[in-house]
Amino acid sequence: MSTTSEQLADLSATTLLRFATAGSVDDGKSTLVGRLLHDSKSVLADQLEAVEAASLSRGQDAPDLALLTDGLRAEREQGITIDVAYRYFATPRRRFILADTPGHVQYTRNMVTGASTAELAVVLVDARNGVVEQTRRHAAVAALLRVPHVVLAVNKMDLVDYAEPVFAAIAEEFTTYASELGVPEITAIPISALAGDNVVEPSANMDWYGGPTVLEHLETVPVSHDLTACHARFPVQYVIRPQTAEHPDYRGYAGQIAAGAFRVGEPVTVLPSGRTSTITAIDALGESVDIAWAPQSVTIRLADDIDISRGDLIAPAGDAPATTQDVVATVCHVADQPLAVGQRVLLKHTTRTVKAIVKDIPSRLTLDDLSQHPAPGQLVANDIGRVVVRTAEPLALDTYADSRRTGSFLLIDPADGTTLAAGMAGDAFAAATAPAAPQDDEGWDF
């Protein structure tokens, strides 16, 4: 079994779109998602019957489509979204994985989870309220996570008499703000999720709008994954050594390809050791292949017997990332307890987890005017700020701008395993000098 380069190129034009929804409380995210699923005929009959029954029991005349996504009992009882709800649906033109994320400030961390793998984010705004602080927060998260496409859905246009000036003012304010954050593409669409205006079908109430509906935009937005152009990265998850009579000398390195493609015969570098070798075989689903690409799970075999363990990274010899113990990054703080200078943490990067210390917090982002508040000393829940982290062992980090997968990491509380912050490595690393050996690994002094 083999895969040609032509077949690999064909895979770069995917028909799958991962997207996330976000917005403030009561902006209508769950209703929009429900309307999208209902009007695109993506709801099973028994699901719709259950929603109709639940709506009737609550005294509602029409089905509450928000119940299609608010799956937790607490969500249904309180009428809010608490956790990320993933929905899978398809149209004749494209397949979708949708992450419906909460709107409450205390659940901003969930939006980070939902948008971390998204190629598009739908940010809802209530036409009566316009752009609010949580709208700006969601735009900032989308920009930090390098989400390439953002849709501004101005909802509840029926409550402002479908007035074009209201939509135009909100679209201009949001577009200006998001552009300053570096969002590359912004599309504004006026909708009414409750009435179905411009969600799946064009609205007769807004003949002044000539753009696409939400579904039409989702079906046609360009999503291209040129796998051959990515920096190839393979974090080792498990070393396979069966040591049986049938395979006495077998040694393979199993894991999921994080980015790019690997080929048999290709020279590679193993990090952080820096040792080099050549790929002699790639095993996928029990068969040998000539080439494998992200996000396939494979076993790679090398020509040389190198000391490799979980957490090491295999990369092409001519395109390996630099290793560092000094990580400068932007983080979104997601824990209830603060993150402070001098705090001992664990840093998890791909399959590697190392001890680390927060050496500095240079600034915190002020969402109102996008200014940097210098030296805040700590970050609290939902803060976005810059940090400098010193690790006990070298890490093979890419910049987040180059690779969303291998440029990201988590900061974890070593006491209880709580995730403290989601980090995105920036361009600024410390001077490329040989890192000093840890003075006292047990005491975390490094």
How does this structure look, described?
This protein is α+β, with helices and mostly antiparallel strands and 446 residues long. The chain folds into three domains: 13-220, P-loop containing nucleotide triphosphate hydrolases (Rossmann fold), CATH 3.40.50; 228-316, Translation factors (Elongation Factor Tu (Ef-tu), domain 3, Beta Barrel); 323-425, Translation factors (Elongation Factor Tu (Ef-tu), domain 3), CATH 2.40.30. Helices cover 18% and strands 33% of the residues. The protein is globular, with a radius of gyration of 24 Å. The termini are far apart.
Low-confidence stretches: 1-5, 8-14, 72-82, 427-442
CATH architecture of the largest domain: 3-Layer(aba) Sandwich
The percentage helix is 10-25%
Q: Classify the fold: give the CATH topology of the largest domain.
A: Rossmann fold
Tell the overall outline.
globular
- Mean pLDDT across every amino acid position: 82
Compute the number of structural domains. Answer: 3
Continuous helix count? 8
Distance between the termini: 49 Å
Main sheet overview: 8 strands, antiparallel
Given this structure, which CATH class of the largest domain is correct? Alpha Beta
Beta strands, count:
25
Strand content: 25-35%
The structure class reads alpha+beta
Kindly provide the radius of gyration, computed on alpha-carbon positions and rounded to a whole number of angstroms.
24 Å
CATH homologous superfamily classification of the largest domain? P-loop containing nucleotide triphosphate hydrolases
